[in-house]
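the six lines:
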Amino acid sequence: MKKSSVRDRVIEAASYLFYQNGYNQTGINQIIEEAQVAKASMYQHFRSKEDIAAVYLRQRHYNWMSALDKFVASKETGKEKIIASFDYLNEWLVDVNFIGCGFQNIITDLPDDHKKIRDEVKFHKNELLQWIENLLLNDESISADSAKELSTEIMVVLEGAIILSQIQKDAWPIFSGKKTCINLLTTSSI
Amino acid sequence: MKKSSVRDRVIEAASYLFYQNGYNQTGINQIIEEAQVAKASMYQHFRSKEDIAAVYLRQRHYNWMSALDKFVASKETGKEKIIASFDYLNEWLVDVNFIGCGFQNIITDLPDDHKKIRDEVKFHKNELLQWIENLLLNDESISADSAKELSTEIMVVLEGAIILSQIQKDAWPIFSGKKTCINLLTTSSI
Amino acid sequence: MKKSSVRDRVIEAASYLFYQNGYNQTGINQIIEEAQVAKASMYQHFRSKEDIAAVYLRQRHYNWMSALDKFVASKETGKEKIIASFDYLNEWLVDVNFIGCGFQNIITDLPDDHKKIRDEVKFHKNELLQWIENLLLNDESISADSAKELSTEIMVVLEGAIILSQIQKDAWPIFSGKKTCINLLTTSSI
Amino acid sequence: MKKSSVRDRVIEAASYLFYQNGYNQTGINQIIEEAQVAKASMYQHFRSKEDIAAVYLRQRHYNWMSALDKFVASKETGKEKIIASFDYLNEWLVDVNFIGCGFQNIITDLPDDHKKIRDEVKFHKNELLQWIENLLLNDESISADSAKELSTEIMVVLEGAIILSQIQKDAWPIFSGKKTCINLLTTSSI
DNA sequence: TATGAATGAGCATTCATTCAT
DNA sequence: AATGAATGAATGCTCATTCAT
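prediction for all of em together
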């Protein structure tokens, strides 16, 4: 069995450490030790720590979104899928012990000049927003305008559920969020 | 005119720096330089950087809450005050250029052992939740049970509005949140 | 049109970088990037960074001397050619913004063991000295002994004019040197 | 007997290493090891490696000039003192095995942004030029204008003698320079 | 001949904290 | 109460060179 590439090992190690311990709490030395890689080898593949984080975030985005998609796959309508996404939050956040969102976490205490990271975070959140909007657009009972507005409202609730459950180390904000979401989707269809 | 105390100057400097640049981005040396205080003098008043942050957060809590109270003072009913709190978010966050919530920001990239800081953040959020609940309890049209549940839902929306506006560097999540809040307060009173 | 060889491209890139930015300031990575050459390919043609520098210096020597020859070609006598060489210094050093002599520059901050480079620098300076002496030997009014001695004196002035104009970022040392040189050539012929 | 201060030990160690091995060849780690000082202690006294070098150069300037003054003290006239300064070069450069001028050496392979160092080098050379000019001004047989011009010519010769003896690892350029200097001072007084 | 991948040793600098006075 | 001096450990990053293919 072949040892995986330097690049892969670095990303794997960094992804784990960045998410578990935070971006600022994770040093290059930790990453290379965990990845069993020479420092200069690592810097041949990544220009900077920020670059590693950018790759980590992009990868995290795809993994997270596809896990979400998979989780709600059994639901039939867009509304049901959206509501189920709160159950996804619950499963996920309980599983990681309420560490919270890797994207939110990395952006809140970041040196000013880390533009790549900020862009990745925005990218992820915009994709998630789009995911919600698309589900609503497929629902015949909802107009395009309503879909746009509703999706932003739900997005806010999702984000709030994540950050507040992280602070409280408890799932209740997720269930409160879910209830709000149901309310939004119900009253809007009147 | 007497120079303010070492302790006060440290807190003032640290408060500014922690909020503007972030906890991890702010070094002890920056703080003592800004505060015009000797390093050892500082450590006579605070055991550690975390201790300074704890005091900063407690003080920030009181300032923030009282500014909120003041902002919504002109409103008569609890519901109106709660809805107006989103306007407060808007005024505040636009003013600070969407730096976000000092409590959310400090908790997301923190060494594991910083318990004092985590406790201050929880304290603040619990106080804010209580503030909302109390306003609802004063409304005769809302039952105690409803007040409890509604307040958690609104709290989630508030938190989401803050973090998402910070990521987007835009006020739209605040207005989406306000809309959701109005919806919640309206449908609940049916 | 064929791409020039690896060797040539490396030398060209290194020559530019060594002279413009300095030997220590120029990294192997810069060279191979500028030369569009793989690192290992480069090391197939040159044993070390020092070896590249040795080739650069030898090539620089020929280019510099032939430009000097060309510059003074219109002058008839050896004395006139030597005096004109200060005008050459001026034209050259103004053109390169007083970067100074590539040979002087490389030798002053060098690891102890870089013998090849030291030898190249000595070679160049000896050739220049010889060039001056030969011009004087062709002058009938000057004895062989005088030519030998005069050439060393003029050489010292030339070197001083270069290094001092580099420090001062100004041409005045070149003109002072020229004046001294004229003086030497005049008084000696008495 | 008290151990000398951190600052003094750092300067002493750095001065030795910078001059003997070169600025680029000398690392911070070497300096602190030689000085027996903790790294952070060193950085409490000096903002950067460049700052250490600036102090080293300033101190070197005073030491070098005062040794020169002392060396030529026995001479009576300004002209004699200036001529004797070439003997000083000889004594000095033979003693240090033709390492050359610490000011010339540091400036020829320096990162672009090291302004402080460049300024110290210019300062030293300007002071030396002034020293020569002042000696000539005290000589009644020389006009102020001549003193100004002669001093620049002699300065060029001095610099050339230093750099060329360094390259050749031999004293002959110093004696050639001395001869030129005598010539300049003699012919000028005609 | 050519090259992508890898490396150990080193770089200058900053960290939060403690000590001696 | 106040402070200048000192520190070990860690920071992110670059160096010239070599290896396997």
